[in-house]
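User: Hi! Is it possible to get a structure for several chains at once, not just one? Here's what I have:
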Amino acid sequence: MASTSDVRKGVVIRQPNDLFVVVEFQHVNPGKGAAFVRTRMKSLGSGKVVEVTYKTSETVDIVQVDFHTMQFLYKTGDKYAFMNMESYEQIEMDADFIGDDAKYLKEGIDVVVGLYEDRPVSVQLPTKIKYKVVEAPPAVRGDSATGNVTKEITLDNGLKVQAPIFIKEGEEVLVNTETGEYSARA
Amino acid sequence: MKSMSNWSELKNNPRLKNIYDTRIKILRLIREFFWSLDFVEIDTPIAVRFASQEPHLNPLPITIHDPNGQGERFYLRTSPEYALKKLLAVGYEKIFEIGKCFRDFESFGGTHNTEFTMLEWYRAPGKYQDIMDDTKNLFKYVASRLPAPIRGGTEGGVLRYKDKKINIFKKWERLSMKEVWQKFINVNLDDYLEIKPLKKLANDRGCTIDDNYEYEDIFYKIFLNEIEPKLGLERPVFVYDYPASMASLSRLCERDHRYAERFELYIGGLELANAFGELTDAAEQKERLGKDRELRQKLGKEVWPVDGDFIAALASLRPASAEAIARQAGIALGVDRMVVLFTGAKDLNEVIFGSISDQLSN
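Assistant: Yes, the chains can be modeled jointly so their relative placement is included. Here is the combined structure:
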């Protein structure tokens, strides 16, 4: 048995009725009360999302998940293909499963995939991903005077982000996948 | 925000810079608000010998040395409340303090940071309802003086938390804890003020609990799962009158001793502040703190003596008239969380310069 300190995004927890993958967790110290961990988790069976709160140090039945580095290959229809870089096996995941993170994917990037009984249960993107800028409108004079210090740029996988006005086409930039924002010049 | 120094992220990301600018403005507006009401800003020690006895808080221990190297154990305060209440006993009537507090063993980010900025204010004489009014007026004062783009323009969706927008210019709600349980889970809290029935209720609702759970633990397990996320989603809500066993430093309600004069403020499901109609009975306070200390011991936590000077300060309070008791009220409000709401920041790390998490990733 594990404890609440092992609960994090992507772990799989066995509850009496089903297996759940943790999609979000947060430590809560209510007012002046004891510490709790509030989780949102998704049923591996039904896909339903539930909220469960544990008291800190409570035992939690965490099942073993194997983490593998996989490279994103391509997208066909609403399937995303990845290659396991250890076994060179290829697996496909549904767009639904990848969710909002899909917009950060670009050919050749490595992600960490959690597998439970050979079935993907979580995908972890790198915190920062490097992209090439394919479209960056030139800065307009007076932009900074009106408080307009950012502009929308388009990256080589189609992702659009707000970036400082000095960024030019052809440059490489880092995007923070936690905030979804421009982070720095690469 | 990993692998980059905090200053560089702040310099390159206009959104984060805007959040930090707003933080500074909010700190200034808070002071202006209290000065406009003739409150006195005071400052009290961060390093204290007799830290709070709150059973579940973990003060950060430090050692202070004299010139000969003789060490004395001190703690970084979890709240300035003892010191502020001592100053009320000195004769100050309206006081506030903005300062750093520390709570160890809490998460780095999300809604916590080990070091955080606390705002506390007290009124003597004063009632906890006065403190609710102050709180509401403070938020409105700050909101109406921040630049329009920050307070959501003219549409008025002023505060943002996660995907929720809360308009603080609408009427604020005041609900008793009993009303809240009735409203959200259809349970009459009067029937669950003892641990035995509450345990049964928790089991019936599918909460896993074991024999080591205190009343408060079970209470919060139900509250956090089923009630808290629904609080203040449309308008801010004061949840008042907690079960007497969770009274802490608050006085019992005059009309019903099963409850205590304690309230918390929730906005968008986020807890912002904790307030008390202050307990001014020295003997009762001494007994409660002694019990808290015993519970700390039982939980295997570090213990220290009850702050005798605090008890002496309470004992010195003289009722204004023979039948009147000394009425005091006060509140502790998390400033970092307030900044999160005003800026729509994603979490505490975005509103704190050099948060624990940022320092660890450098």
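The two ends of chain A are 43 Å apart (CA to CA). The first strand of chain A starts at residue 2 and ends at 3.

User: Great, thank you!
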